[in-house]
Amino acid sequence: MNCPSCKDCKLEPKSTTAGVELDTCRRCNSVWLDRGEIFLHIPSKQITPFNKAIEEAVQRKEKSGYKSQNNKDMYPVSNLPIDSNEIFVDDNRGIWATERGINELKTSSSFRLDWAEASAPATRYIKRLPNLVLSSTVTFGALYGLVALALITLSLLFESDSSTSGDDGIFVGGSLLTISFIITIIGFLLGPFIMDLQLRWLFTIEWLEPNQLPKALETYLKETSTKNNINIPYMGVINDMAPNAFTYGHTPNNARIVITKGLFELLEEDELNSVVGHEIGHAVHWDILLMSFAQMVPIFFYYMYRACLEAAEKASKAGKDGAKAAPPFILVAIGSYIVYIIAEYLVLYFSRVREYYADRFGAESVGSASALSGALVKIAYGLAGRRDAESRSEEENSSTINSIGALGISNAESGQMLAVTSSNNSDYEWDGETQYEINKNSIMGAMKWDLWNPWATFYELNSTHPLTAKRLLHLSRQSEEIGEEPYITFNLAKPESYWDEFVHDIIMILFPWLLIIGFFLVPTYDNPIIPPEHWFSAVVFLFGLGYLYKLYFRYPNSIYPEMSVDTLLQQVKVSDIRPIPCTVRGTVRGKGIPGYVFSDDLVLQDDTGIIFLDHRQPLAIWEWIWGWMRGDSMVGKDITVQGWYRRSPMPYIEINNFTVEGKTRRSYLWIFRYLTGIVITLIGVMLFAGLIII
């Protein structure tokens, strides 16, 4: 948009130290803030008066002569703690502040607006993909090298025991390896049939012949299957408008590909083909088989860990001589568990590499990396293009697709949703003639968390899939390699480090335990502050107190300013434990897990994008019953949600309460957690006072 004051000067994005990207005018230094962004820069105690002043200005509709985007009138905001009326708002709660207004806000209301110094663009840190064969060979070599090392260790351990020999150790290790192999084979052979049953019982699925699919997809399937010398995959369609896709099976020739009906509505022909191509890529690369045998190694070390613990327990019960043999088994058990964790991370890395190559296959099979990029954007980061809804009639709006949810392109092992948000702007029609528009600046804004927040790296290490932002960057590089214009080039420079927040988050997660550790570090055994007989009660009390403070951090204040999905998704300084309180208004477009009978989570869409709503209750059975009895009835209804926006890495809003058709319903999980913390603290006090005796 152009500057409302200068009119002919286009606003340019600029990042703040709070991780928020604002639009600024380089000529007059005025600032534009999207709906809700102003609340990210003011103290929590001032949110309520600011929100009240904004709503009063919208209700008064006192025209200022200034226009925002889409030629909307802007109104002066009064009753703020500043001397001038240099703050303006439009009907969509977007804020425009002049340089004078910003300076007065900063001096009068603790308005935190500091511009960040930009560092190198994130694209510099995206490395080229490793060779698929080489990476697979190295990974398998590392995994089974660990197995060989374990067998040698067991042999030496048994050899050190006078009653056994090294051959006994090899026998035990071989037995554990055999058990792991049998479990892997059984899982591999029976897995697809179990998945078939699950899809039949819990989802509404229809298996289609190629000629029952759209013509373009049918042609693509036949040509791709012929080119790669495989049978045409079985195609299943789940009758749910939330887009999803995954593959499973034994071999490339009996692969099943499952997609939802929503994909047909959301994606164009080449985009749909590229998503299906991604799944075919998993089959062609034998990912299901290779992942199964890679996963066998962590299974082996887990069983080795359990076996050594049992051996140590038996040895300790075998008398004096047996007790001497127990410590080596305990050490091996500890070592086995550590190696088990290492092996799990190697398998996850192996999976992520193969996901990149499935992306590459899907792009190559349709001859366009931008097609798959566009699909991932619409599926995972589909922030809606902006358009004036008031220019459309109610009849036109009612004719649009009204059910879009979330997608995860998953392998057979996970079966979980990966990509996190999708969007179908209600201002656009899907009639084959109207172009679905994407605001790429919004996309880049949503990608910032994936690329800059340290939590994103942590979650990726524990995920079978790469973060979608990184997948987009790799696909952009692939576009450049084939001489195609990249769908999106992320060129935003990282403004500052976010490690301070990450470290603080870790401290808050561990805070109850840190209090306990600190307690034992402070007193000395010669002159303890608290006598040893009261140490247990002190530990219980400190844990409860630390848990309550952790909850205070996890569920901040009771003020929920209204924000847009777009504003929330662009925030970098947010995590699972560091939320942003918010109110979001929109329409329920689907259930959290497409087609799942007991899914209690919802997908909300406002005029800027789509986000998950996490519906939590103290008992999971309450959630299942609600999802079964009420979940489907929520789809298509307008909803106002108050809660906490979090990322883990999936962006979602944990519901505090929501209002539908004038009725307000609450989530009681946070209250239950507070009560639990209070009870634990009181138990500690009563133990100390002798009111409770253990």
- On the 0-100 scale, what is the average pLDDT? 78
* Secondary-structure class: alpha+beta
What's the N-to-C terminus distance? 68 Å
Number of separate strands: 17
Give the domain tally.
4
Brief summary:
With 694 residues, the protein is of the alpha+beta class.
Brief descriptors of the model:
alpha+beta; six-stranded antiparallel beta sheet; globular; 4 domains; 20 helices
What do these coordinates show?
The protein is α+β, with helices and mostly antiparallel strands and 694 residues long. It folds into 4 domains: 12-108, no CATH class; 132-233 and 242-481, no CATH class; 499-556 and 680-689, no CATH class; 565-667, Bacterial OB-fold (OB fold (Dihydrolipoamide Acetyltransferase, E2P)). Helix content is 48%, strand content 12%. The chain contains 20 helices and 17 strands. The protein has helices spanning 47-60, 99-108, 132-159, 166-202, 215-227, 261-266, 269-284, 287-316, 320-366, 369-380, 394-398, 440-452, 454-461, 468-481, 499-509, 511-521, 535-554, 565-569, 620-634, 669-689, and strands at residues 12-15, 21-24, 31-33, 75-76, 87-89, 95-97, 205-208, 234-238, 245-248, 256-260, 409-410, 580-591, 602-605, 610-614, 638-647, 651-660, 663-666. The strands form 3 sheets. It has a 6-stranded antiparallel beta sheet. Helix 4 crosses helix 8 and helix 12 (440-452) crosses helix 13. The longest helix has 47 residues, at 320-366. It is globular, with a radius of gyration of 29 Å.
